[in-house]
Amino acid sequence: MGLLPLLLLLAAAHADLDAERKLIRIRGDIILGGIFPMHEQVPGRSDMPCGAVKEEKGMQRLEAMLYAIDEINASPDLLPNVTLGALVIDSCSSDTYALEQSMEFVRSYMNQDMSEYKCESGKPPVYVPHKPVTAVIGASFSVVSIMVANILRLFKIPQVSYASTSTELSDKSRFEYFSRVVPPDNFQAQTMVEIIKELGWKYVSTVAVEGDYGERGIASFISYSADAGICIAVTEKILRNSKTEDFDRIIERLLQKTARAVVLFVDEDNTRKLLQATIRANKTGHFLWIGSDSWGAKVHPVRDQEFAAEGAITILPHRNAIQGTKSYIYIRTQTGRSPGSNTSITRNTTIY
User: Fold this and answer.
1) What is the CATH number for 194?
2) Where along the sequence do coiled-coil regions lie (predicted)?
3) Band (346; pLDDT cuts 50, 70, 90)
4) pTM to 2 decimal places
């Protein structure tokens, strides 16, 4: 069975799979929502918005949330006599698709749902309402977090992001129920400027992905650069649904300037496409890349084209290894693996 579309069903004895809505529901006393980009976005395909599986940014982060839930539920001290459950959706790396899917988090506040009716052995249906979502973990992309936050705030549902770094989300007058465990983009923009100063560069180009993350990140970088005496050669933008030829044109315009250093505030999928464009132009090794945290230490942007990224400097927020996570994922990798992928699948999973 193929991987498209794919969602995981965890703890099958306590979980339900809604194939129509493509979500994971794990029963518990307190329900935590989760948003993860488990698939890449398919540009221009509203009928099939979800593409290839995203292992690092999607599946591994999903596993991290489920690991935390398992650890808390197994502890006799943290939440005694209380079981955590989950309602997890796939954003498919798309803000509009994620907004549609996130309505599942507030559905219990609005109306009854057909999935809340249970029929057993021909008996009349019994209404068993889902428990409301208490808080939401996610999202990854800032633009997705912004859209989802605008829905959750109406129902006063707290949201904690593990990766959204946009400075816009720091505005507590608009996002009073949003918090995050990563620093905002202006911190890494300032770090990029400090790195460039140490390297003695005075002339750089920039590339931003369209949207709040890329545009605000580069705007912060340009502001700090002006104070540091660093000149900007050209500023390029990767538009939504950009085609292969659009990336080729960006590389062509970058080559028209003498600046070899290029600062990127670009998501990992578009970073990969930009590197592919340098290969097509036979200009690998020409540019000196400074990448933001969306590239960070991820393998996906450079897999099978590592030579195109040789010498790149990428930014990554400080992080600590959590004891037990590696063995947790390893066990599940050995007990079940998604076909054609290194993505681990936990016990009793269902693929559709």
Assistant:
1) 3.40.50.2300
2) none
3) very low
4) 0.77
